[in-house]
Design goal:
The complex is a heterodimer of chains A (201) and B (366). Chain A is elongated. Chain A has 201 residues and is an all-alpha fold. With 366 residues, chain B is mainly α. In chain B, helix 3 packs parallel to helix 9. The chains are: A mainly alpha (201), B mainly alpha (366). Chains A and B meet through helix 2 and helix 3 of A and helix 1, helix 4, helix 5 and helix 6 of B.
Chain lengths: 201, 366
């Protein structure tokens, strides 16, 4: 067993354990933090596959931004375990069906001959100066430019829709425009009054 | 070095020898980076107190000294503070989530130190010379917010929780502006490797530094850096006059000190990155005799110290931003500005080479 194998098994064990923790943890905050751990270890596995750009982007986007917002929302929830467990048996058949379909799909992919190890030989090792990032950028902006642009447009539509759905114009907020605040001169606020001193009678 | 390598080979065999050798070598190098860094953090706190005292016409710490030497008065202060913090009791509040409460400071300092792995101190002095260095640093600094959020939640205190919420929103928004500012840098340098980014700024004088073509981006990056580290005037996460001390209200002793260390380590990191990316790193401002005699590492330290001074200056000068003003600055000022600059830069890069050479533009676009 080489050092690389040991690293792989370590990351894989942590990944599986934390993924199990996500679905078994009682406390939603713990579940989210375990999911963060799962993402992080997954990035470690991708690094072993020499996909450093994807690995770092996974940490940057999912761990650094998406999960922070997740945590943000989950922390503000009023956690009441009894209420969460209320409809368990009512929804159990539906959940079980979903799980079965997913398991069947995964089995179809993993058992299929197309994805067996001898069908997919390991890619040749790259030189040390091979830049994954540059190569990905070249592919995205040349061969797959239409797919990439389509994905970008879909995301843009999603952003606009999310803002349009949640935007509410409140009537009568007490709001000060900062640019106007900055522009204020003394003359706008203070009136200098010249008053002659009064004579003492 | 080779002797040590041979020794490892003899002890652990040909398969494990090289692995264990590089592991040991890296551990020694990590200690060689982290120890001076922590010393720098300690003396940055002293510098802060002294400089702010100077700006407010006070004296600042001037008592603690080493071995009673009078002219070192004040220099022992960080050491005394550290010893005091170590001696104090760590109080875990009732109803706090114990594991997460202890884990939060660790989660804050670990990314702050891990990011230093790819920082080059001179052309040869770098622990991990990886291609995606800039991305790695962005990823690591974006992890730092977890410590703050978890600390706020695990403390089971309203003030701490408010601080954590404020910090989460603030850091996530300023990260975007920071990332876009760095996109401009990598458009100019064609590389994500920090060493290559500095090498792209070579060429005779400070005119070649990316500071000149990317001056607005430098401002965006630096101000976002101040916001990311939760420093004044963006310190709403602490806000001692509104929410006592924000996310670390409940922390005491060493647990609090670790938060403190992480904040200052992050400040040094932001200053280092800004000097590497925009101020030419180890390059002297003029490539002529008196400047080139000073080693590059000293130039880098000078630039870092110069930028760190700004952090302290800001704190002594500006009142705290209101929360909605922070959000406005991030989303409505910085992000549009960076987007416009990216488009502008892209347009200039697409100009024909003859046109670029006619202007002094070829200093930066090559």
């Amino acid at each position: 067993m080489s050092f690389q194998d040991i690293t792989f098994y370590f990351f894989a064990t942590v990944l599986v354990a934390s993924a199990l923790g996500v679905i078994t943890a009682r406390n939603p905050v713990h579940a989210v933090l375990l999911l963060v751990l799962a993402f992080f270890t997954c990035a470690g596995l991708w690094l072993l596959l020499q996909a450093e750009f994807l690995a770092i982007t996974l940490v940057l986007v999912y761990v650094g931004a998406v999960m922070v917002l997740f945590l943000f929302v989950v922390m503000m929830l009023d956690i009441n375990l009894d209420r969460l467990r209320e409809g368990f048996w009512k929804w159990f058949p539906f959940g079980a069906l979903l799980a079965l379909v997913m398991a069947a799909e995964m089995a179809m992919v993993l058992m299929g001959r197309k994805f067996s190890i001898d069908q997919m030989p390991a890619p040749p090792a790259r030189a040390a100066d091979y830049s994954n990032t540059k190569e990905l950028g070249r592919l995205i902006y040349t061969e797959y430019v239409y797919a990439f642009e389509l994905a970008a447009v879909i995301l843009l539509v999603a952003i606009v829709a999310a803002i349009a759905l949640t935007l509410r114009r409140r009537t009568g907020p007490r709001f000060l425009d900062p640019s106007q605040q900055v522009k204020v001169k003394r003359a706008d606020r203070v009136r200098m009054v010249s008053m002659p001193s009064e004579k003492k009678e | 070095m080779e002797y040590a390598q041979q020794l490892f080979g003899q002890f652990f065999g040909t398969e494990w020898g090289p692995v264990l050798f590089s592991l040991t070598k890296n551990l020694v190098l990590i200690v060689a980076i982290v120890l001076p860094l922590l010393l720098g953090v300690a003396y940055l706190t002293l510098a802060e107190r002294k400089i702010i005292a100077f700006m407010q016409i006070r004296v600042g710490p001037n008592r603690v000294t080493f071995f009673g030497i009078p002219w070192l008065a004040g220099w022992g202060q960080p050491i005394a503070d550290a010893v005091k913090a170590l001696m104090k009791e760590i109080i875990i509040p009732n109803g706090a989530n114990k594991t997460l409460f202890i884990m939060a400071p660790i989660l804050t300092i670990a990314p702050a130190l891990a990011a230093w792995a790819v920082v080059p101190f001179s052309p040869e002095m770098v622990l991990a010379d990886i291609n995606a260095g800039l991305l790695y640093i962005l990823a690591m600094t974006s992890m730092g917010v977890y410590g703050v959020i978890i600390a706020g939640w695990a403390s089971n205190s309203k003030y701490a929780f408010l601080g954590a919420m404020r910090s989460a929103a603030q850091v996530v928004s300023y990260e975007l502006a920071m990332g876009f500012a760095l996109v401009c840098v990598l458009m100019l340098s064609h590389s994500l490797n920090l060493g290559d980014i500095v090498k792209g700024q070579e060429g005779g004088s400070f005119i070649n530094w990316y500071l000149i073509p990317l001056f607005p981006m430098f401002l965006v990056y630096f101000i976002s850096g101040v916001a990311e580290t939760n420093r004044a005037p963006f310190d709403v996460a602490e806000g001692e006059s509104e929410i006592v001390a924000g996310f670390h209200v409940e922390y005491s002793g060493m647990a609090f000190t670790v938060f403190f260390l992480a904040e200052y380590a992050n400040m040094i990191l932001v200053a280092t990155l800004a000097s590497l990316i925009f101020l030419g790193g180890w390059l002297p401002p003029f490539d002529i005799a008196p400047f080139t005699l000073i080693p590059g590492f000293i130039w880098l330290l000078l630039k870092i110290a110069f930028l760190l001074f700004f952090f302290l200056w800001f704190r002594a000068t500006f009142p705290r931003y209101r929360y909605d003003q922070i959000m406005r600055l991030g989303w409505k000022v910085f992000i549009p500005l960076t987007l416009v600059w990216i488009v502008l830069l892209g347009a200039v890069m697409q100009l024909p080479p003859a046109f670029l050479n006619a202007f002094p533009l070829n200093l930066w676009f090559h």
